[in-house]
Amino acid sequence: MELFLFALIILIASILQTSTGFGFSILATPFLLLLFEPRQAIQINLILSLAISIALIAKIQKDIDTAVLKRFIIGSLTGLPVGIVLFLLANMTSMKLAISVVILVLTVLLLLNFRIRQSHKRDTIAGWFSGSLTTSIGMPGPPLLLYFSGTDAKKEKLRGTTLAFYLFIYFVSLLIQVIFAGTDATVWKSSGRALPLVIVGLFLGQALFKRISQKLFRLFTYAILLFTGIYLLIDTM
């Protein structure tokens, strides 16, 4: 049963990551925490998310806002060490609670039509939050999703710029996790078993991305966030 659940989580999360640019970590991390220790769940998420970013980077280059990407990276450099400190100090219950609260607060702000005027400084701040969340809970997506949604970014720009940023942030975060938190064979064996499912998810996600409108894309986003946040909160309580 656990193997089936693991396969289902990876396949659905891979489809979402490819079609939306953020879905893998937001969906996979909370459910992987039900099957693995926090360190293992986060590192499996980082490895597979990095693989997806590598596979997609050539296809989404034209949609990348390089100026925004650079500011995200600069901001994340100071957020990454903060995140690993929080991870090393937190227990599993606190980790799940933190993830559920982050997701639900994000969703409420989006549903309330929260808007942010984009600026160079705010690009950097969004990168900082994303970096700190990546090394702490393995989820760089929420700050970027809120920021891009708040600025009414087109789905192509959102997906392209976030996937390019993930290529950097997941690689650096994985290195930091391995160095400061350690790793084990379970992480790498589970990631290896999941790679074929990720490949299937890549093809299905690309097909889905071409067929969904901007409005449906946004509604799909809210539904994923609400489901994941509420499920994890109930599990924690």
UniProtKB/TrEMBL annotation:
This is Probable membrane transporter protein. It is found in: Cell membrane. It is a multi-pass membrane protein. It holds the Pfam family TauE. The chain crosses the membrane at residues 42-60, 72-91, 97-114, 163-181, 193-209, 216-234. PANTHER family: MEMBRANE TRANSPORTER PROTEIN (PTHR30269:SF37), TRANSMEMBRANE PROTEIN YFCA (PTHR30269). Belongs to the 4-toluene sulfonate uptake permease (TSUP) (TC 2.A.102) family. InterPro entries: TM_pro_TauE-like, TSUP. Keywords: Cell membrane, Membrane, Transmembrane, Transmembrane helix, Transport.
